[in-house]
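User: Just a sanity check before I run the rest of the batch. Below are the structure tokens for the first item. I only need the designed sequence back.
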């Protein structure tokens, strides 16, 4: 299954940005066990590359394990070496270019029409509409007028209540950080994380 197909099937990317590497690793494993196979670990989290390495060793080669906040070419190379098979960027730049050059599945951060055109021309896997909260579902719907084909994944301010509105506006999936993860990646309650995961899964299955 390629990334575009996985996004359309699962409809949810879990985004982890933790201050505690051990808690972040436990969060990855809890999400995977709960049936959320698309997991992004932000490089802005503490010791993120170690979290990616440990998770890859536990989950095996087939799992979708992403590195997020990839900004530089060095970020992209280090993420790939750690075992990431999905690269997520906050915008266009050297990190995205290196990821595409390596043939890695990419979720490229865009906001404006010009950025959509530039990213799509690079042959990225999907477009991360970020920060989606700037315009909300109405903005995504407007973007899809001139750009009906790219796979859009809104990220930023997406919670369980707004996820369905983004799907209705044409999103193939949504990326969710704190509304899903809460404080789990900082040492919080994993049982509460599992409850939130089930809530998002119910929305995405609908």
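Assistant: Here's the designed sequence for the first item:
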């Amino acid at each position: 299954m390629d990334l575009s197909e996985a996004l359309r099937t699962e409809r949810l990317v879990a985004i982890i940005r933790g201050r505690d590497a051990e808690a972040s690793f436990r969060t990855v494993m809890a999400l995977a066990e709960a049936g959320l196979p698309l997991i992004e670990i932000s490089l802005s989290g503490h010791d993120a590359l170690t979290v990616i390495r440990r998770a890859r060793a536990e989950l095996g080669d087939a799992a979708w394990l992403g590195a997020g906040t990839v900004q530089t070419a060095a970020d992209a190379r280090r993420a790939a070496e750690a075992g990431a098979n999905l690269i997520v960027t906050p915008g266009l730049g050297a990190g995205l270019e290196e990821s595409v050059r390596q043939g890695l599945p990419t979720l490229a951060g865009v906001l404006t029409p010009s950025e959509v055109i530039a990213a799509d021309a690079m042959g990225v896997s999907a477009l991360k509409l970020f920060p989606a909260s700037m315009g909300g579902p109405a903005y995504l719907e407007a973007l899809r007028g001139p750009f009906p084909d790219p796979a859009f994944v809104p990220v930023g301010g997406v919670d369980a209540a707004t996820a369905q509105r983004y799907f209705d506006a044409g999103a193939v999936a949504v990326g969710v950080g704190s509304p899903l993860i809460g404080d789990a990646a900082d040492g919080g309650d994993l049982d509460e994380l599992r409850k939130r995961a089930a809530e998002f899964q119910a929305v995405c299955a609908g």
